Amino acid sequence: MTQSYGLEFGLNEWLVDEQHERYLHDPRSVDQAWRDFFAAPATATERRGRDETSAVSDDADEVAVKAVRVAALIHAYRVRGHLMADTDPLAAERRGSHPELDITAFGLGDEDLERTFVVDGFAGRVTMPLRDVLRVLRDSYCRTVGTQYMHIQSSEERRWVQQRIESPHPGADRAEQLQILYRLGAAEALETFLHTKYVGQKRYSLEGGESAIVLLDALLHRSISTGVREAVIGMAHRGRLNVLANIVGKSYAEIFHEFEDAMDIRSVQGSGDVKYHLGAEGTYRALNGGTIAVSVVANPSHLEIVGPVAQGVVRAKQEVAADGADTFPVLPIVLHGDAAFAGQGVVGETLNMSQLPGYRTGGTVHIVINNQLGFTTAPAYGRTSGYATDAARTVEAPIFHVNGDDPEAVVRIARLAFDYRQAFHKDVVIDLICYRRHGHSEVDDPSITQPAMYDRIVARHSVRKLYAEALIRRGDTSERQVEGALRDYRERLERAFVETQALSAPGHSPERVIPGDAEDAAAPRATTAITEATARRVIASQTSPPHDFTVHPRVLPQLRRRATMLDAGTIDWATAETLAIGSLLLDGVPVRLAGQDSRRGTFGQRHAVLTDRRTGVEYTPLNSLGASAADFAPHDSMLSELAALAFEYGYSLARPEALVLWEAQFGDFANGAQTVIDEYIASSEQKWGQRSGVTLLLPHGLEGQGPDHSSGRIERFLQLCAQGNMSVAMPSLPGNYFHLLRQQALGERGRGRPLVVFAPKSMLRLKTATSTLTELTTGAFRAVLPDETADAARTGRVLVCSGKVFYDLDAHRRSSNLPDTAIVRVERLYPFPEREFGAELARFPADAEVRWVQEEPENQGAWSFVEPYVRRLANRPVGCVSRPPAPAPAVGSARRHADEQKDLVTSAFR
Residue 256 and residue 226: Cα distance in Å, rounded? Predict the structure, then answer.
């Protein structure tokens, strides 16, 4: 295309093509010079051909062409200027010129430097000499900040960034300089103090990246001035202690206590996790007196997994704080490492969440503490992309690369990033390019793998010292003031250290009491039955859409059947769930449900959100229960388990009064979120004293669908069960599922524990797996369902099972007329219901044979976990009827599956 316009741009021919595409899409998205050029009826070459004798015309054409070349030059700097930016504090010398940014690549030369060109508002000017254009471009894009924003599709957002990047940047005033110096001093002093007092202890120092504290300080200052109510920080371990002390306000004495290992070992945190994983809540106090609530989310060593957890926390806090308004009064800040941001897939998943309806938090400020190194892995081996931050381009986030040794630029970019977030409610990334003064941990020697890099680091002064020297050189402060402030800070640390030593004298440490596994550890009983009037009110919402709403003809009959089920005594699973959620809403309990296709339901059973057949408008029936009812928030998630479940876990932390449900499309899909299950759901209370009431719905059952889509991996969850840390249930009746959900929401309001439910698939429509209205208006969740059909005195065999296999066993018993066999259902596997199960077994003769029956292979399912309980309570040998041990959960052939299932059921009665 460029040749058709008679222009030669060499390396930059791409630029004219790009501008023309934008012009065709929206003429206002390009500068005036480009608009005039593309709107011209003929090319410059053609115009010269029509009047070769006119010198005036030639001059005019040349001016027009040169103006386009200058416009192309400006655009190229906006796109590529970051490639020349001086952002690496370890660079031996500044980056030289880039061939694509040389004026000769645009057909311009030194003779044009003093010529004035139309620049259409660039730097606030109509015309400018080329020399001034270059000066502004280099000042804007090639100093200690490199900016990437031209990948953003919105011209409004691009112009917003351009105006601020290309405007003059006034230097910091004296108050700002002292603020920066104070924060750098505080950050450096804490690290050097810990390094000398606790030699050899890991702390994952921030040294080399102390400007991160200045950055956070500037963000929180800006937040206070604009009325943001709270900030939530998610971060890995590097720099965490510094952030806790200098931003959150955790006392030095507390931190020193943790180094002394002097915490009370009876406390959860005293024995639960290392100091650089702990979270905290506090108040950030600005030097001008302003305050803002700030917290750091607890995080394991799985680096970036804290990102979606923090997002969930923020979403929940925003919903409470905003009180229904479309505002984002809580600021999420996530600190990343460079290697982790590029390498961990959960980063991309979390970025993808940022603008989704069920997950938006109004924009996150991402800060990459770019050490230019992983543990020992150099960037060339750790990522394919040019920058560690390139993943953020996928969501059109602006990216600001800033030299960590220029703290004034860091402050300026922090303010710019915050303002962008506030203006557009989108994510923004600050790539703080710095270095790591020590190894990955302080006991590691990084010079073994990066000798040249660490020679430069050893020879380099700290950012505090460099900044202080610059201020002294400029006469902005004196050496006496600088050293006095640092000395005062060190004295404060020393006093706290001495106090800690006095309190940490060795003495008797009482033995820690470890919670038991008793079923009493389950949530206390609540009243879960509802009135018939409540049930009918909830069901009425399903069949009463707005008068102008057209329900899909395939969905309407399902909704109408829900009304008839109450009277027919055939309440199915979807209806029982609707009644559980609807009645909780009427009780004032908010409910959030999220998962892949969860609004409709993977199996077409739920229909929590209806879509108008004609208009596509959406309607949520359970949100029509009246103004006094709580809110129901059903959301389809993106195709992810890891970030999606982490988000729900975080949400449940901040809204303990809500029932938070995460549904896997199939139970085994939870494999993709195993990190969240292991590191948060199962162990957060033990590690951090942090309870979550998140509920997992995992469709489970071997039904001939192959090795995948069959097993929710019961055995993995049961292996994690100890000390009453969560509940694991596999209900076989809709009524019991109804009570289980209400028990989870009401049993221990605000102090619940996780619940894992192995949910039905084929049972969703199994006619024998239904409940009556009476089962919902009376009673409660039953951890053991007794066999009420068997004659206990004449029973010679007791089959014990959980879930769907009961219906296969019961069908065989009926068809084979085997009244001497009782079938007992264990509906809650953990905490194991010892009292109820023991009482049920006691009804049968002492010599009755007891067998555990499960569909899963013997090495999977619940058997290995329940065996010691069942054997002890039965007080006799107990056999297991199951599929033989196998590495996969199920076979691939539906016919083979049917044969196996038949053999399994019949063998249970032999």
Answer: 35
Residue 753's closest CA among 677, 682, 698, 697?
A: 682
Per residue in 203-242, is it b (16+ CB within 10 Å) or e — as a string?
bbbbbbbbbbbbbbbbbbbbbbeeebbbbbbbbbbbbbbb
Instruction: Tell me which of 46-50, 98-102, 451-455, 582-586 is least confident.
Output: 46-50
DSSP-derived letter for residue 885 is P
Say whether pLDDT at 448 is over 90: yes
* 632-636: strand order across its sheet: 632-636, 591-595, 659-663, 695-699, 755-759, 727-729, 828-830
Neighbours of 617 (CB within 10 A): 12
In angstroms, the CA 878 to CA 894 distance is: 30
Residue 483 is encoded by which pair of tokens?
């050293």
Is the separation of the CB atoms in 184 and 489 below 8 Å? no
For residue 47, is pLDDT > 60? Answer: no
For 172-196, write each residue's pLDDT tens digit.
999 999 999 999 999 998 888 888 8
Q: What confidence tens digit (pLDDT) does each residue in 100-110 have?
A: 999 999 999 99
Long-range contacts of 718-722 (CB under 8 A, 24+ apart): 718/829, 718/830, 718/862, 718/864, 718/865, 719/865, 720/677, 720/678, 720/682, 720/683, 721/517, 721/682, 721/830, 721/831, 721/865, 722/517
First-to-final CA distance of the chain? 82
Helix and strand totals (H; E) in the chain: 32, 24
591-595 and 291-296 as β-strands: parallel, antiparallel, unpaired? Answer: unpaired
Residue type, 646: A
DSSP code of residue 626: -
Q: Is the separation of the CB atoms in 535 and 541 below 8 Å?
A: no
| Euclidean distance between CA atoms 150 and 863, whole angstroms | 58
Torsion on CA atoms 76, 79, 80, 86, rounded to nearest 10? 120
Confidence label for 2 from pLDDT (cuts 50, 70 and 90): very low
637 pLDDT above the threshold of 70 = yes
State pTM to two decimals. Answer: 0.91
Which contiguous run of DSSP H or E holds residue 32? helix 32-39
Which residue is associated with the tokens 């209205």? 773
